[in-house]
């Protein structure tokens, strides 16, 4: 398409030279002037209208010949939380997970947070994880992401000391991680009321979760629900202008045939697991039901990975806790953007 300036020059040339050519064919002067006027008006209008007409034609032609892909609409950050667990698994030869390719998940732009990005996201943060062995395995997944293999190998024995707390500071990134052994729900409530509430600064991120010990040694879903309700009350008793980002680590899928004692096989049934899940929902401690804690659904993740991912029917391979960790990190990205806004 010619630019308007060149079109104007072309029009002027036509107005000047065409009448001269017609004069050479011995037309009368009156007819030549009349023809020149009509021609001038027509070309004047064409010069001004052509750019718009040609642009529209060009866009229409381009849209037909080279249709651009229609991107998924971007979702507001708060709308993305429900889709964090939309995960697909490939089980052979080794279990691998990825977020599925559905429209809402694609629009949210979830990604696997790298070591570098995790260090930036968590820079200067205090992360507190309280719970049972499942919570300890989540801490291990976090350390695997943040630390090099040599550093990790030197600290794993301390992390997995039986029924013990664990503390580490990653000085060059200002990250502090505390794991507190809290196998029963009352341990978590005591932690919140007696140790967290009185301190001047709360953790930036808190992950809470228990239930396996309760299921094995108490085996009473109603009692479990009451205990979780007290955790919720303790969370609401925290008073701070900026509360921690808080997560609830759900119970895993239980594979009865792999549980290693008769007592576990008798008490830790799928029926009991369902009952405990209903009690958590009833307490409304989870964000999806209006509560304060975002669910890390280990049951769904472990079910997706399958029975091949567990040796003892309740503790799963690292890939499951890595998935839970990445869900947590992406939730932190979402919530951080919300707070910025």
Summary, kept brief:
The chain is an alpha/beta fold. The chain has 13 helices and eight strands. Keywords: Membrane, Transmembrane, Transmembrane helix.
Topology:
Elements: H1 4-24, H2 29-65, E1 87-90, E2 96-99, H3 103-108, H4 115-121, E3 126-131, H5 133-146, H6 149-159, E4 166-170, E5 175-181, H7 185-196, E6 205-209, H8 212-217, H9 221-236, E7 245-249, H10 262-267, H11 270-283, E8 294-296, H12 298-305, H13 318-340
Parallel strand pairs: 3-5, 3-6, 6-7, 7-8
Antiparallel strand pairs: 1-2, 4-5
Helix pairs in contact: 1-2, 5-6, 5-13, 7-9, 9-11, 12-13
Describe the protein in words.
It is found in: Membrane. The protein has helices at residues 4-24, 29-65, 103-108, 115-121, 133-146, 149-159, 185-196, 212-217, 221-236, 262-267, 270-283, 298-305, 318-340; strands spanning 87-90, 96-99, 126-131, 166-170, 175-181, 205-209, 245-249, 294-296. The longest helix is centred in the first third of the chain and has 37 residues, at 29-65. The protein has 341 residues and is of the alpha/beta class. Helices cover 53% and strands 11% of the residues. It has two domains: 4-65, no CATH class; 77-340, SGNH hydrolase (Rossmann fold, 3-Layer(aba) Sandwich). It is globular, with a radius of gyration of 34 Å. The strands form two sheets. The chain has a six-stranded mixed sheet with strand order 4-5-3-6-7-8, with helices on both faces.
